[in-house]
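Review form for a predicted model. The reviewer records the input and the model, then writes brief findings.
Reviewer: anonymous (R2)
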Amino acid sequence: MSPLIDRHGRTKRKLRISLTDRCNFRCTYCMPEHPDWLPKSSLLDRGEVVRLAGLFVDSGIDQIRLTGGEPLLRRDLLECVREIGALRERGLRRLSMTTNASRIAPKARELVAAGIDDFNVSLDAIDPDTFRRLTLREIAPVLDGIDALTDAGANIKLNAVVIRGDNEKDIVPLLEWAMARGIPLRYIEYMPLDAPGHWKRDAVVSEADMLAAIGVSHRVEHQPRSSDPATPYLVDGHYPLGIISTVSNPFCSTCDRLRLTATGELFTCLFSPLGTPLGARMREGVSDEVLGEQVRRAVWLKDAGYAARPGPVDRPVTMHAMGG
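Model under review:
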């Protein structure tokens, strides 16, 4: 089949699949204070997840990232990984996972053996008190999870959302902690994706602010950009750092990503106000051919992105249900 291309000429190669809306953390920038979990009957079962994943792979998607919520809360996670991994025979090249790592230590080797190629671990601060304030959880299990992934030979990258007044003082300490362990790090500007009315523009620590903080004690060199959302930098001539600057310097022109929620709703942009209910239509008995046509139409109509319509998005789906 021909590739998935939108009306702005961007080809889609990457799909994020949320396996659950549930999470054991309560990160302030992601989770409502009192989340309403989706009924389990509305979540895609494993066969439905694999069916939709296969449809996208057959349409040119060659990289899939499993997200949540927290994917480790999915009881059949290993089976999902193995069955989605089998799509390599149909063109899948890379299978990844985003996790808070707090429950991953006992499963690290199994997940690597099952076919996860790389892990993005959310770590917004290295100071225990700051971490606890941001997530309402302890940092020790996360660090244990990172150690377990390292021992299992996993490829790891750290993600940190930076919020003014919360963890901007951890920018350099977290960077130096990651540098000492040789784990790549990506800082993420605080985006308007949390509970309605919660996000404030003055809480954003911009890419320029982050670079200024790091530049006081480290040499930072800008590197050529790719289609990756992170602007790449080299710290002290050897360490790879990325900064995702959606708010101050949107990367929309090179976006090659799609998102599928745990109920099978397709969002072509992180900031899309509406999705396409593929899961519901699949349960109505719609064929793969018809589902494929609906995917192509949704992708073709994809907006230019945040760069064209900056600011909070008004929709009932918040970040924990959308998938990171």
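Findings: The first strand starts at residue 14 and ends at 18.
Further findings: The first helix runs from residue 46 to 58.
Recommendation: see findings above.
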